[in-house]
Design goal:
The chain has ten helices and nine strands. With 275 residues, the chain is α+β, with helices and mostly antiparallel strands. It is globular.
C-alpha cells in the first residue's frame, strides 16, 4: 500500500509474517537508515522493532524485508493510561538500547535529526509559503519567523553523552499496541538524536495533540530530563510546531489530510509555545 506523498510502499504477508518495504525516495539515505536502525535494535533491544531479514539497498528501488509485528496503530483515538505508559517504556527502551560508540560506527549520517529539521524549516521559510489571510495564522507566522530569526536552534545539538538513537518520525501510527506493550516501526528517518528533540516532535505531531488528545505537559513531566534537555525541549517544540504550520498551509501537503480549521488550531498552539 502507498499513500499520496508517501516515501515507500509496504506489502504485508501475514501468513509468512513478513513485511516488504520498497522505497520511493532515498535521497536522504532512508533505506540505509532503516536497515541500520533495525540491525542495531535487533542486537540491543530484540522485539522492540521488526527484525531485519534481508535487504537490497542498491536496487532501484531499494527494498527491505523485515518481520511483521502484531498490534494496532496508535493515534486514531485518545490514548488510554496503559497505552501512554507503554509508549513511555518503548521510548526509553529505544533511547537506552544502542551505545553511542556503536551508533557512530554504523550510522549512515552523522547529522543529528534536530539539526536536519532546523535546516529543513529554514529552507521552507525561504520559499515564502502562502499561509492564507486568516489574521491568527498570520500573527503566529510572524511571531515564529521573528523568533527563529533571533534564535539558534541549529546550534543546539546535544552533548555526546546525551546522544541517542532517534526514530525521527513520531507519528503515533508508527507505534503498535498489542494490548500489553508497544513496538516501533518505520525507521527511515532514524539517526543520532537526543531525547528532548524526539519528545518535542512526538508531542507536537498532529497525530498526538489532535488525533490522540495527548496532553503534552503532563506526558513530558513523566520523563526525568536534565536542565539542558528541558531548555532544548522548549526550542524544539516551537520549531516542530512551526514545521507543522507550514505543512498545514492552504494547499500544503498536510492540509487535505486534516479537518478544516486545523491550521488555525495549529497557529494558536504555536502562539502559546512562543508566549
Amino acid at each position: 500500500m502507498a499513500r499520496r506523498g508517501a516515501t515507500h510502499e509496504v506489502c504485508i504477508d501475514r501468513a509468512q509474517r513478513l513485511v516488504v518495504k520498497r522505497f520511493q525516495s532515498w535521497d536522504r539515505c532512508e533505506p540505509a537508515r532503516e536497515w541500520t536502525a533495525l540491525t542495531l535494535l535487533a542486537e540491543s533491544a530484540p522485539g522492540l522493532a521488526p527484525a531485519p531479514l534481508r535487504a537490497d539497498l542498491d536496487a532501484d528501488p531499494p527494498v527491505i524485508v523485515m518481520s511483521w509485528l502484531p498490534g494496532v496503530q496508535l493515534g486514531h483515538a485518545p490514548l488510554s493510561a496503559a497505552q501512554t505508559e507503554a509508549l513511555m517504556v518503548a521510548l526509553e527502551q529505544l533511547w537506552q538500547s544502542v551505545p553511542i560508540s556503536r551508533m557512530k560506527t554504523c550510522a549512515p549520517t552523522t547529522v543529528p535529526n534536530s539539526i536536519a529539521l532546523a535546516g529543513q524549516v529554514r529552507a521552507m521559510l525561504a520559499t515564502e509559503p502562502d499561509l492564507g489571510e486568516d489574521p491568527l495564522v498570520r500573527r503566529a507566522w510572524q511571531a515564529a519567523v521573528t523568533w527563529l530569526d533571533n534564535s539558534t536552534p541549529d546550534s543546539q545539538a546535544c552533548p555526546d553523552g546525551e546522544v541517542v538513537l532517534g526514530q525521527g518520525d513520531c507519528n503515533l501510527a508508527n507505534f503498535l499496541w498489542d494490548g500489553a506493550q508497544i513496538r516501533i516501526v518505520d525507521f527511515e528517518d532514524s539517526g543520532p538524536s537526543d531525547r528532548a528533540f524526539e519528545l518535542a516532535i512526538l508531542v507536537e505531531h498532529i497525530s498526538a495533540w489532535s488525533d490522540a488528545s495527548l496532553e503534552a505537559d503532563t506526558f513530558l513531566a513523566q520523563f526525568e530530563l536534565t536542565t539542558s534537555e528541558r531548555a532544548r525541549l522548549r526550542q524544539w517544540r516551537r520549531l516542530a510546531a512551526l514545521f507543522w504550520m507550514i505543512l498545514l498551509r492552504p494547499d500544503g501537503p498536510a492540509s487535505c489530510r486534516n479537518p478544516p480549521g486545523t491550521l488555525k488550531l495549529q497557529a494558536s498552539r504555536l502562539l502559546t509555545l512562543l508566549g
